[in-house]
Amino acid sequence: MSSNAELKKAGLKTTLPRLKILSMLESTNIRHMTAEDVYKSLLDSGEEIGLATVYRVLTQFENAGLVIRHNFEGGRSVFELNDEGHHDHLVCMECGEVFEFYDKAIEERQRKVAEESGFVLDNHSLYMYGVCEGMRNNGKCSINKKKLSSVLNTSKR
Amino acid sequence: MSSNAELKKAGLKTTLPRLKILSMLESTNIRHMTAEDVYKSLLDSGEEIGLATVYRVLTQFENAGLVIRHNFEGGRSVFELNDEGHHDHLVCMECGEVFEFYDKAIEERQRKVAEESGFVLDNHSLYMYGVCEGMRNNGKCSINKKKLSSVLNTSKR
DNA sequence: ACGTTAGTGACAATTATTAGCAATAAACAA
DNA sequence: TTGTTTATTGCTAATAATTGTCACTAACGT
Ligand SMILES: [Mn+2]
Ligand SMILES: [Mn+2]
Ligand SMILES: [Zn+2]
Ligand SMILES: [Zn+2]
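Output (structure tokens, whole complex):
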């Protein structure tokens, strides 16, 4: 489906900034970005969009279900396109690499726990932090460090 | 063990502010508090401690393993005493109530997933968000709302 | 008690994010 | 198309949470 149609389906007027942000998210090879990452990425490709607009649009996308917002350690929000189904995250504290996974057993147990506690679940986040194989073995990760910097918390950047 | 000894064991000089914060955390019936909650709670009991000191001390406690920092939805850090063992959290988005749970199966699957991905795990956080039974049934929760306000994100307060 | 050094308190500075508002640009009917 | 309406944008200013600075104190060891 075209970005244009995606926006329409989400009930959002198809404006230039929204189109640019959405198609950037769809074409980038970095799945998890902060608002500022998005802003800079657009700047790099010659698109001038105000930072405030980026924040606004990302929040609108979140409410529309187009993107997912994450609160990894470190405080700032990280966004990813909501294209694949639900999954959870493994974050390397050394290089910032993010591995995604889905574990049926975990999801089922979560439902069970919520049910037993009388909760009606809306959503959940499971973040696991550690050190990836690459960083342990040869101190270098398979993916571009610089680009992923935003996932690491401030003290480590 | 006395708060005094706890600090010593953690390698922290036993100062008045640290003692007050630690013993407050040990005696309060609110397990999850923001830095400002801690600050105000101390003020209420007549203890004057600078907010910056509260932030500093909580971070020191975190590094020493005395407290755990949480990043629930909404952005701000929430702290709890690291006295019981590890557990995960169910947060009610209506009233802010926090339920704690521990699920062996989930923990085991997490270890498995990490291992398979080549990660050496350091820690993890599993937060589930929903609506608790009390809020669904009669719109009122079993615990003091005002005191828990800090757990809810800004837009809902 | 005394001196050394880490810790504190008040306040300034940052960082991430949001609010306000005049200028634009979609949508849509004429 | 063109004009009208109204949402959206791009500044910039404002907040909220947290951290940095630095002179003043208070622990700790002697
Ligand atoms: Mn993801
Ligand atoms: Mn807890
Ligand atoms: Zn999950
Ligand atoms: Zn757990």
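The interface with chain A takes residues 71-73, 75, 77, 90, 92-93, 99, 101, 103, 105-106, 109-110, 113-114, 117-133, 136 of chain B (CB under 8 Å).
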